[in-house]
Amino acid sequence: MVDFKREMEINLGERSFKLKGTFDALSTMQSECGFSMAEITQMLADKKAPLQVYSAIIFGGIVGAGNPEKITHKEVQELVFEFGILGVAPMAVNFFLLCIKKNPKFEGDPEKNAVPAQAGQPMT
Q1: 44 contacts: CB under 8 Å, gap ≥ 6
Q2: pTM flag (> 0.85)
Q3: Predicted pLDDT at 102
Q4: 3-class SS at 97?
Q5: Which of these, 14, 21, 23, 117, is most buried using a 10 Å CB contact count?
Q6: What count of other Cβ atoms lies within 10 Å of the Cβ of residue 24?
């Protein structure tokens, strides 16, 4: 099986960044744009996401990769604006989909794989 990694490299003008999908990345996306994961997903699907969503996705990925350059969200916003929304949108959407995609090593139906806890017994 292919090693499944939630990582990608992007270039914004002359700067390149490693984006990594982690829990911190997803949390940062939500907090920086003020929308839930469901709202972000719906806006991207409807092609109605505001500019702040795209910059939050990019910044979240940078945070997920450890933010080695210590770049701020404000700086990412400026780079996104300079690079252009038409150039950034596809990269942001692809990275977001990579973040929320099901890991293929967890095969099968999650509903069928779930084992309900019995009342009064600890979950294992």
Answers
A1: 53, 93, 96
A2: no
A3: 78
A4: helix
A5: 21
A6: 15
pLDDT digits (tens, 9 = 90+) for 20-54: 999 999 999 999 999 999 999 999 999 999 989 99
Residue 100: CA atoms inside 13 Å, Cβ hemisphere, count? 16
Mean pLDDT, residues 80-93:
92
pLDDT at position 71 is 94
88 token code pair: 């950034």
- Show the tokens assigned to 45: 């699907």
Name the region of 16 (left: φ>0; alpha: ψ -120 to 50; beta: rest).
beta
Closest CA to 49 of 59, 39, 58: 39
Query: Residues near 30 by Cβ (< 8 Å), separated by ≥ 6?
Result: 36, 37, 40, 56
At position 82, the amino acid (one-letter code) is E
Query: What residue ranges do the domains of the chain occupy?
Result: 7-102
Angle formed at CA 76 by CA 62 and CA 85, multiple of 5 degrees = 110
The full length of the chain comes to: 124
Give the per-residue pLDDT at 2.
46
